[in-house]
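Supplementary Methods. Inverse-folding protocol.

Structures were first reduced to a discrete structure-token string of length 214. This string, shown here, constituted the complete conditioning input.
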């Protein structure tokens, strides 16, 4: 089982931190009272928002992290890695397609946000592998469980959007962080599996060396 390069470890750990840090800082910069529970994250990067560059940069950096993680996650199936890369590209498009200043509707923003949420939900189902020594986060049962949990969270978010609920921002943030954290957990599980494999190989070599000297 191939290992994950260090730069993908960094990118997977950076994504959830930058995403949460971006909306926290950008929210504090808004005049008046910005309510992170009721209001969407997209408001922070909308045209006319105060210091909208903060959330825009957070979107871009998070998207670049998905790209890097997908490229370096060699233990995962190629289809899953491609979906992570696609999520990164969609994130870039979200950043360059802000909502209008009037709080109106942006079709481009909605489309690319939907693409991003969709591929980040589906990628665990396309990344799994079978066989001995597969990292725990890439096992089919785990992947299905994670996808189900994320679908439930997204259903909550969709319901809030369609009904004009009072927890749109909270649901969006929970969904975003859940999707950003999962690649990190997959990377951690892959690194752990690689270490176990290397340790097992070292023990086998040691035993072989002892046998040859006996």
């Amino acid at each position: 089982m191939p290992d994950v390069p260090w730069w993908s470890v960094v990118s997977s750990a950076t994504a959830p931190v930058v995403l949460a840090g971006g909306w926290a800082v950008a929210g504090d910069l808004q005049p008046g009272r910005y309510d992170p529970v009721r209001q969407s994250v997209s408001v922070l990067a909308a045209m006319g928002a105060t210091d909208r560059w903060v959330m825009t940069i957070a979107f871009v950096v998070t998207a670049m992290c998905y790209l890097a993680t997908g490229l370096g996650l060699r233990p995962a199936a190629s289809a899953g890695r491609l979906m992570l890369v696609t999520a990164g590209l969609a994130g870039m498009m979200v950043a360059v397609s802000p909502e209008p200043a009037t709080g109106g509707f942006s079709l481009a923003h909605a489309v690319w946000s939907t693409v991003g949420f969709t591929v980040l939900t589906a990628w665990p189902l396309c990344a799994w592998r079978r066989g001995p020594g597969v990292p725990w986060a890439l096992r089919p049962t785990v992947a299905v469980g994670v996808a189900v949990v994320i679908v439930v969270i997204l259903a909550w978010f969709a319901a809030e959007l369609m009904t004009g609920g009072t927890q749109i921002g909270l649901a969006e943030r929970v969904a975003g962080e859940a999707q950003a954290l999962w690649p990190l957990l997959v990377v951690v599980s892959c690194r752990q599996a690689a270490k176990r494999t290397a340790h097992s190989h070292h023990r086998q070599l040691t035993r072989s060396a002892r046998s040859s000297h006996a």
